[in-house]
Specification:
single chain, alpha+beta, three-stranded antiparallel beta sheet
Length: about 250
């Protein structure tokens, strides 16, 4: 037999005013999550519980039936507060998962669209910068600026681009990530080469793909609050790794 006092989070001796207050608070909170089937089922339990113990005569008959049931271990009051916090965190976590999924879709769209080509770009500046490839031995790279683009080159191929040189640059149309560069005047010839940052669409493509899967699971309705919170935590870690790859490799 369903214990509607526990469903509403009130004691057996609660007054009618306390029952109504608890019902209104839970109804307001659960209606914000009405898109989730699990929250809809929970709201239905709350409505059914208030329909019984919120009515004096029905409550009296229900109390008689409840007293005939085997005694159950009473849950501590903080249990209900902890459960309410879980639902609150779940709503925030699901919103975060939706945002992460949207970012992954943006990355996918940026990868799928045709690259924007800038031919006859003149290198306006080229200066050394430090890249944290290892904590003990940071690698030196070169920051290059042209009229329309900006990118970094590993030191191993930094000699292929010089200030005042004319190059061709291919970058993604939305995020502007430079994927390929061609320098006809380079001693190594005009063959295209890859700067830092483009590997997110190359060897590290599984990272945003995994992030999209985790965020998709966390954004889909019908999961428990723990699932929403856990997927948001994992998605946050994967987002940090994706940003590190995007900025440093």
């Amino acid at each position: 037999m369903q214990n509607y006092y526990r469903v509403l989070g009130v004691s057996l001796t609660a007054t009618a005013g306390q029952i109504e207050q608890a019902y209104l608070a839970q109804r307001t909170r659960l209606r914000r999550l009405a898109a989730d089937p699990a929250m809809q089922a929970r709201l239905a339990e709350v409505e059914a519980g208030y329909g019984i113990i919120g009515h004096p005569r029905r409550r009296l008959a229900y109390d008689v039936l409840l007293a005939q049931q085997p005694a159950e271990a009473a849950l501590p009051p903080h249990h209900y507060a902890a459960e309410a916090r879980w639902y609150h965190y779940a709503r925030i976590a699901r919103s975060l998962n939706v945002a992460l999924l949207a970012c992954c879709l943006l990355l996918g769209l940026d990868w799928a669209l045709p690259l924007r080509q800038y031919a006859h770009e003149t290198v306006q500046s080229r200066f050394p910068v430090s890249v944290p490839s290892a904590l003990s031995a940071p690698e030196v790279a070169y920051r290059v600026h042209t009229a329309h683009t900006s990118f970094r080159l590993p030191s191993a191929i930094g000699h292929r681009v010089r200030t005042g040189q004319t190059i061709t640059v291919w970058q993604t149309p939305i995020l502007g990530i430079v994927l390929r560069i061609s320098a006809p005047a380079s001693p190594d010839g005009p063959a295209p080469f890859q700067p830092y940052g483009g590997t997110i669409y190359g060897v590290f493509f599984l990272l945003p793909l995994l992030l999209a899967v985790v965020a998709g699971v966390g954004a889909w309705p019908g999961h428990s609050p723990e699932t929403y919170v856990n997927t948001a935590a994992v998605g946050g870690l994967l987002t940090i790794l994706t940003l590190v790859v995007l900025l440093c490799f």
